[in-house]
Each structure stands twice: as C-alpha cells, then as structure tokens.
Write a structure and sequence with these properties.
Length: 285
C-alpha cells in the first residue's frame, strides 16, 4: 500500500515516515522545494515536490497512492484544496492531524480555520480519520519542552505566569506517530475524530518539577501576576517588540488542557507513555 505524507520533513512527520516504512508501507513524501530533507535522507522513500498552496502539484503527487497522511498544519487554510486533490487523484482514505487547540475558549487566530478544516474533512466523503494531538514534545525540534529544558539547564529560577496550576497533557512525538499507524491499520477509525494526549494530565508546576527532577536540578519558581503580564505582552506586540513568549501563549497557559483519549484507546489500542517517561527520553538523547 502506498501512502503520500505531507509535512514529512517536520518534527512529527519525520517520526511517522520511518514507522510507516517499518510497517511495510511504501511512502511518498510531499515536500517543498526549500524543505530540508536531511531527517529522512537515509530512508527509502519517493519524493514529490510541491507546495500545499498549489493543488496541481498535490494532485499529481497523490496519483497512484492509496492513502493520504496529512501531517502539515490544517491552520493555513489549505484543507478544501487538499480534499479536492485527493478526490481528483482517486484517493479514498485520509488520516489528518488536527489539534486539541480547536477546543480553546480563546479567540485565537487559527481556531476558525482549523474548525472549518475539520468540518470540510468530515463532509468530504473521504474515508477519513482525524487525530487531534495535544502539545507534542520529544526532541530538540519540538519548540516547547526543549526550550523549557534549555532554559532550566541555564537558570536556577523559572518564571511562571500565574499559579501554574492549570492542567496540560503533552504527548510524546512517537506516540503521535504510533497513533497514525494504528488509525491506518484499524478500519473502525474511518469516519471518526479522536483526541490523543499523554498518559495523564499534570499541572505546569508539575511539568517544571518533573523536568527539574530529570535534570537532577533544584529550581525556584517565580510566579508572576497573570493579567499584568498578559497586558504587558499585548503592549509589546502592539509596538512590534518581539519577545520569546506571546500574549496568546500566556493566555493559553492559563487554560486547562487535559483531554480524555478513551475513544482512541477503545478503537485502536492507543496507549501513550507518561510525561516522566517521555521527558527522560528527550533529556537523555
Ligand atoms: N507541535 C505541536 O505541539 C502540535 C500540537 C498539536 C497539533 N500539531 C499538529 O501536528 C502537525 C505537525 O506539527 P509539527 O510541529 O510536527 O510541524 P512542523 O515541525 O512545523 O512541520 C510542518 C511540516 O509541514 C510542512 N509544510 C508546511 N507548510 C507547507 C506547505 N505550504 N506546503 C507543503 N508542506 C508544508 C513543512 O515543510 P518544510 O520542511 O518545507 O517547512 C514541514 O514538513 C501539524 O498539523 C500541527 O498543527 C502540532
């Protein structure tokens, strides 16, 4: 069976592709002219060059494949044309990575685009499965936990916006890859959308404690008042001053982001690792 993977060169995609190959799938990677192919350079894959904003290239890349695994973000408004390309190329099965960020109470910039993308997939007539991961971590490419680890290695004090008591449930990148494979292998997932998350939720304070424990380091948390910090960050954005954290991220930190994954467990045996296990792998590798 041949699979076309979009987002193959990315943080998650580069973990999905080897797993698909190991499980006997042939893989064609849809990459941009500018994509860095080095994470996949040792693998036996076909390449198709194009951009998701160019439906013709995607349709051509999808020809003579059986499945589309769409890992590239649905937040850029390409969903409708991706679905048209799949239809034109005669591809009937699609696995789509979405995000639990669609459940945010905030009016974030990409929420409506992502919600519209899911609705389009669900109405497309394709044999689809949507997987919605929480925050994905697991390597220096993750842009979230790696930054925290790096900061904590250098500093004895960690600023925490607000109480740090809100829940989150980060998912290890290889558990996302495993979910893609299992969803593909289990036809019960056709026509269904699943939240996927780490084993159990933990507070941001517990995230810091777990990272500190794994680094064998003592850390002091400096709790900063929530709203003044958000207002300050909003002000810096208005005057176009770039800081490592955006107001939207600070606001998201103070939302509970714990998600049940019972449906994924029941339908395809999804069994993610704990944050303690995952962060140990990330720090030790
Ligand atoms: N990271 C998280 O914490 C997180 C959490 C929940 C859900 N998700 C979802 O999980 C998926 C993977 O995330 P990630 O963090 O692994 O992504 P990533 O590292 O940013 O990789 C994105 C991939 O998509 C490709 N891509 C982007 N725009 C494209 C375009 N216009 N045409 C063709 N290819 C394009 C990139 O190609 P280049 O190599 O050319 O840049 C890259 O291979 C995304 O759908 C994301 O929304 C991520």
């Amino acid at each position: 069976m041949k699979v076309l993977v979009t987002g193959a060169t990315g943080f998650t995609g580069s973990r999905v592709v080897p797993l698909l190959l190991d499980s006997g799938y042939q893989v064609r990677c849809f990459v941009r002219e500018t994509s860095d192919r080095s994470p996949l350079s040792s693998l036996k894959v076909e390449w198709a060059v194009g951009d998701l904003s160019n439906p013709k290239a995607l349709t051509a890349a999808l020809r003579d494949t059986d499945v589309l695994v769409n890992i590239a973000s649905l937040g850029f408004g390409h969903a409708a044309s991706i679905l048209r390309s799949a239809k034109e190329a005669g591809v009937k099965r699609g696995i789509f990575i979405s995000t639990t960020a669609i459940f945010t109470q905030l009016n974030t910039s990409s929420k409506s685009i992502r919600l519209a993308a899911e609705e389009a997939i669900q109405a497309s007539g394709l044999d689809y499965t949507i997987l919605r991961p929480t925050m994905i971590y697991g390597s220096p490419r993750d842009r979230n936990m790696w930054r925290l680890i790096r900061f904590m290695k250098q500093s004895p004090i960690i600023p925490v916006v607000g109480s740090g008591n809100h829940l989150q449930q980060p998912i290890f990148v290889d558990d996302v890859a495993q979910a893609v494979l299992l969803a593909l292998q289990n036809n019960v997932t056709i026509g269904r959308s699943y939240n996927i998350a780490g084993k159990t939720p933990l507070t941001y304070n517990q995230v810091i404690d777990t990272v500190a424990f794994t680094l064998r380091k003592r850390m002091w948390k400096l709790h900063l008042p929530y709203m003044p910090i958000v207002r300050f960050l909003q002000f810096t954005e208005r005057i176009r001053l770039r800081l490592p954290i955006k107001a939207e991220q600070a606001l998201r930190l103070n939302e509970n982001k714990a998600f049940l994954y019972e449906e994924a467990k029941k339908d395809f045996g999804f069994s993610p690792r704990s944050f303690e296990e995952g962060i140990k792998i990330e720090i030790e590798n």
